[in-house]
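Field log, afternoon session.

UNIT: design team B
ACTIVITY: writing a sequence onto a fixed backbone
BACKBONE:
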């Protein structure tokens, strides 16, 4: 009888050992769980939208319990959504207005990019424009005063009477505001042209119109895959020194060349401009952590995506502002 009990006890012990060995091993006691969780809602400038999607993806890799809702819509929508509390962060591609600060808008600079003229690759005088460039004065006379109305006037050939079809943004846009200031205006409403809603629609409209001219942010007119112009578009050179020809440092056939011209200060400002993130009041909690990450580790993703990283002084200034 005693032997039977001993055999039974051995069987029970074996069963217990097998069951324990089948259980998954517990995480080490010193392995901290990620404490960040929640959803961050972002809306605003089309200019910063591609970069924000990269930042959101990379941040989520580090913090899987954080989710994002990122929407475009233009800088005007971004500020409206921010001040109304509809989103946590607004992407703003223009200067913050005094009245917006009075309503509680808080902002920090996170990067720099620029706005570029865009014409169709099928423009009848595309070759002449690429050789001569378009001066700031010409942009002003097309978009602000309306004195230049034909492509012949642009290239200095009165025999060419093809009209210029001018396109501008119909939605509140930081790019439009910068383009207006570059042309000598003050606000978006100073620009002449047929209104087109959204940047993607603007570029598509100009590509399809051989006589059209518009303006675009870098990441909408340069192909992210090839680095060259998107199919059907040309970024005409800006004759910055007004010598009547496009110099080597004024014509940017690739995204990298355009980006370097902005970083080196060769491309004028405006239309080069700062990009900001705005919140209603100084950010706290998860939103603050995300913006601080953008200003530190997140800066490494800017140049590959076609944006200018902050200088060390600019980075420190934005971080100090968050304190």
């Amino acid at each position: 009888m005693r032997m039977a009990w001993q055999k039974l006890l051995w069987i029970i012990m074996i069963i217990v050992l097998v069951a324990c060995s089948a259980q998954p091993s517990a995480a080490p006691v010193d392995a901290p769980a990620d404490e960040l969780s929640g959803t961050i809602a972002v809306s605003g400038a089309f200019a910063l939208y591609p970069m924000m999607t990269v930042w959101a993806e990379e941040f989520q890799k580090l913090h899987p319990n954080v989710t994002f809702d990122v929407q475009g819509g233009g800088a005007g929508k971004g500020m409206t959504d921010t001040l109304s509390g509809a989103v946590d962060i607004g992407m703003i591609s223009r200067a913050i207005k005094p009245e917006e600060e009075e309503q509680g808008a808080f902002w920090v600079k996170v990067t720099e990019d620029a706005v570029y003229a865009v014409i169709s690759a099928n423009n009848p005088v595309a070759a002449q424009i690429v050789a001569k460039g378009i001066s700031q004065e010409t942009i002003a006379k097309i978009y602000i005063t309306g004195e230049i109305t034909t492509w012949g006037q642009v290239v200095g050939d009165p025999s060419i009477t093809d009209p210029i079809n001018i396109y501008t943004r119909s939605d509140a846009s930081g790019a439009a505001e910068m383009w207006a200031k570059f042309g000598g205006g003050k606000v978006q409403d100073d620009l002449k042209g047929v209104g087109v809603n959204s940047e993607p629609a603007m570029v598509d409209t100009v590509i399809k119109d051989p006589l059209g001219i518009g303006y675009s942010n870098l990441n909408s007119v340069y192909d992210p895959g090839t680095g060259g112009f998107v199919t059907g578009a040309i970024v005409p050179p800006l004759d910055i020194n007004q010598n009547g020809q496009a110099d080597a440092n004024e014509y940017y056939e690739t995204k990298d060349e355009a980006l370097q011209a902005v970083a080196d200060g060769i491309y004028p400002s405006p239309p080069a401009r700062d990009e900001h993130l705005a919140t209603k009041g100084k950010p706290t909690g998860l939103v603050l952590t995300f913006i601080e990450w953008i200003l530190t580790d997140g800066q490494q993703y800017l140049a590959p995506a076609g944006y200018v990283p902050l200088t060390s002084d600019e980075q420190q200034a934005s971080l100090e502002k968050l304190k």
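LOG NOTE: The beta strands are 38-44, 66-73, 89-92, 105-120, 165-169, 194-196, 212-217, 233-234, 272-280.
NEXT ACTIVITY: expression trials, pending approval
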